[in-house]
UniProtKB/TrEMBL annotation:
Protein's GO biological process: xylan catabolic process
Organism: Neotamlana nanhaiensis
Site keyed Important for catalytic activity, responsible for pKa modulation of the active site Glu and correct orientation of both the proton donor and substrate: positions: 151
Superkingdom assignment: Bacteria
Family: Belongs to the glycosyl hydrolase 43 family.
InterPro entries associated with the record: Glyco_hydro_43, Glyco_hydro_beta-prop_sf, Glycosyl_Hydrlase_43_Enz
Name of the featured protein: Alpha-N-arabinofuranosidase
SUPFAM superfamilies linked: Arabinanase/levansucrase/invertase
Molecular-function annotations in GO: hydrolase activity, hydrolyzing O-glycosyl compounds
Amino acid sequence: MPENSIDHIDFNELNKKAISQPLVTHMYTADPSAHVFNGKIYIYPSHDIDAGIPFNDNGDHFGMEDYHVFSMDSVCSKAVDNGLALHVDDVPWAEKQMWAPDATEKDGKYYLFFPARDYEGFFKIGVAISDSPTGPFTPQPQPIKGSYSIDPAIFKDDDGNYYLYFGGIWGGMLQKYRNNIFDTKNELPKPDETALMPLVAKLQDDLLEFSEEVKQVQIIDENGDLLLEGDNDRRFFEAAWMHKYNGKYYFSYSTGDTHFICYGIGDNPYGPFTYTGRILNPVVGWTSHHSICEVEGKWYLFYHDSSLSKGVTHLRSIKVAEITYNDDGTINTLDPYCE
Ligand code: FUB
């Protein structure tokens, strides 16, 4: 992931125009997955550090090592840092790159889902368990069988089933897989071919393994055709998220190299999802990654940008802004910096 050109940005002016300010300023945080558990907001972000690794398209400079969980009494209150929740050194199978996590609750236990590279260099997805939403979390000794790539997002449907969405191209390695099988010869499709789609699998009752084969999540256009690889403004790149609004399933994601957070709407957790529009226009920094959470009847987008670090793309800060829906169920696009 190349660094954005930031030479032209006046950060004092930008911060005045920003629709929200960083929730956390004593460390860098990114990829915020937000949930309400027992009436309180919990945010599960990446913990950005400068690991001193040179920038490349693989995202190797995102050398994160651990997670902290943040809690908030309301979207306006202070985000409290609850300390170290999980460190890569405590995960037997994981070597490095603790990227975007997510968490859920079941029967009074909390499950943290996280990607990391194993000792052979493959991204896998692990689960760690705690009695508290803030951790510390105890990792399973092995990653989820059949998991690969990055950016796990866990969704609990109203019927009590849990689904894990995941995947990401470029550094997330999704382009190396076809039908869940890795082959080093695999590459991204050609621009006029079908894009690589994100992945989903239902979880077992214990939330520790998939209960079915990993499936592709289909994102289709207004004619019912799968999005094409060359459709960079709309095709999936990374940062899957699922939420439900008025009985419809909203699958949202980042378009990566075009920096939009987009969404499609479907009728069930597997899709297909018809591309519908943009939720967030580009932020400062190369990556964009979000979650969507209902808090006391209002809907919020948790997202990040690199304004606090003055544009350093791997030193990001989590933020929150309200989103609104139109009567037809579409979401009004947010501009992160107003004119
Ligand atoms: O934080 C590392 C990576 O950057 C995430 O996994 C991606 O979604 C992007 O935000």
